Amino acid sequence: MSTHVLTAVAWPYANGPRHIGHVSGFGVPSDVFSRFQRMSGNRVLMISGTDEHGTPIQVQADKEGRTPRETVDRYNRVIAEDLCGLGLSYDLFTRTVTGNHYKVVQELFLALHRNGYVIPKVAKGAISPSTGRTLPDRYIEGTCPICGFDGARGDQCDNCGNQLDPADLINPRSRINGEKPEFVETEHLFLDLPAFAESLGQWLSTRTQWRPNVLKFSQNLLADLQPRPITRDLDWGVPIPLDGWREQPMKRFYVWFDAVIGYLSASVEWARRSGDADAWKAWWTERDAQAYYFMGKDNIVFHSLIWPALLLGHNGKGDRDGRPGAFGELNLPTEVVSSEFLTMSGSKFSTSRGTVIYVTDFLREFGPDTLRYFISVAGPENQDTDFTWDEFVRRINFELANEWGNLVNRSISMAHKNVGAVPTPSAPQQADEELKALARNAFDVVGDHLRRSRFKAAIGEAMRVVGAANRYLSDQEPWKRKDDPERRDTILHTALQVVSDVNTLLTPFLPHSAQKVHELLGGEGVWAAQPEIREVEDLDVAGSVYPVLSGDYAAEQARWESRPIEVGRPLAKPTPLFAKLDPALGETGPEWAAIQ
Length: 596
Ligand SMILES: [Zn+2]
Prior knowledge:
The chain is α/β, with parallel strands linked by helices. The protein has helices at 20-39, 55-64, 68-85, 99-114, 197-204, 212-221, 255-260, 262-274, 281-284, 300-315, 359-366, 368-378, 389-418, 430-451, 455-476, 485-506, 511-520, 585-588; strands at residues 4-9, 43-50, 92-95, 118-127, 140-143, 152-153, 170-174, 182-191, 228-229, 231-233, 251-253, 290-296, 335-339, 342-344, 347-348, 385-387, 532-537, 545-550. Helix 13 packs antiparallel against helix 16.
């Protein structure tokens, strides 16, 4: 039976290129999951885009001497290219400056407002005494009132991670000219989060299959929910569609508010582009559809509490009840899949400190599947994980190249040299049957892990079959069976069948090399489909053209099953699947990645 599965992937912030820490948290895991779900026959909608509003964009734009729009145009493209290069199979990777996104954000807000879950409150806003202009949060720094760190920003302390209000900072000063800001009263709109405490608690109590740390963390926050501001004094963002608000150039939705609604707006945009404007509903309003959200651990609260609260408010399901808004009754997340952090040499990846490896540099030198392999087998799935070049080189050389690459190469080489095609098997022996059964049974075992987002366990099981197949070849020694070609051909046929099965098992992880193995085994056509960048015109703003990531995944042949290989299919001499890396790289890394 086919299920509609929404893969909702965290939105990268468009203020710079992505480093490998970013894609290890949200990128590769969500793509492995989506590819597996498609191979299992489910209808996947994988969506995301770049998050492009807010003060950090304005800060970055000022630094670059550009407008915010020019800055996000630049990084939207850079990020889309990074993710495309990694082979992340988005149905739509879009952005938050589109006319469609603005409309969906405003529509969802109006439903919240109609149902009574938006409350106005007077708050303190900062202005610059010398210019009289509003000073956005991030332009203010000072000492954190919680931990005492002296470089805290007006909206957040990078040291303790707490959200702040600029008026709370001790010794606040402007980052533009160092002057002390003046605080004046300003009205803002707040989401009445406490009105959802009970509904959220009931819903969370049904989420028993979540990773325990995510569930516990979310439940602990329930007792202390506070109204949360959804507007800001800022001119770069989505306008507020209420009389008295929409005319004010310095009142916009807070960036977190518009970005999290991107999951819905991207789904709607995908549907509008597909020719069936209602097609998104199968993932959002059908009760048996599933929705999986992928992100780093610093984003859990937005996906386990705040986004569900917005959905409940839109549906009219908080303390004040209400009626569903324009989108109908929307589904809450099935699961929130969060990962931990990838660190480098013990410290968090940071562009400012120079501990950074950009995706684009990595792909240019090593290609996508080595990074996908490393993240899957050694990434920060359950705990913070240190990236070291030494471990990267070791895993690529000893696991990917020596184990998997070598199994593919010697199985196909021997069959090519001796038969020139997939050989005909005869009377199978116990060892042959055992190995084939191990590979066949792995579909259930690996599939079960993947359904539950246990990527390390899943790829570990697939690699266990690779190890068994290599031992089988060493034991059976087909190269010594010149005078018994029937037995030799049976062994080679067994090895090729297992290579074919393992290639299917590894396809979600290593889609690029899986396509190559498919071809080395004599297959034709698309085995694992890849995304591509398409230039599209904004559906609501004539003349605005931007790149999106999309793909034709229905064309791919890979199915989550053991498929018998075809006897007699011609086999050419294989070329190596993975190049071995220079062990010296393990000591320092490539020159471009040296820590500055
Ligand atoms: Zn702090």
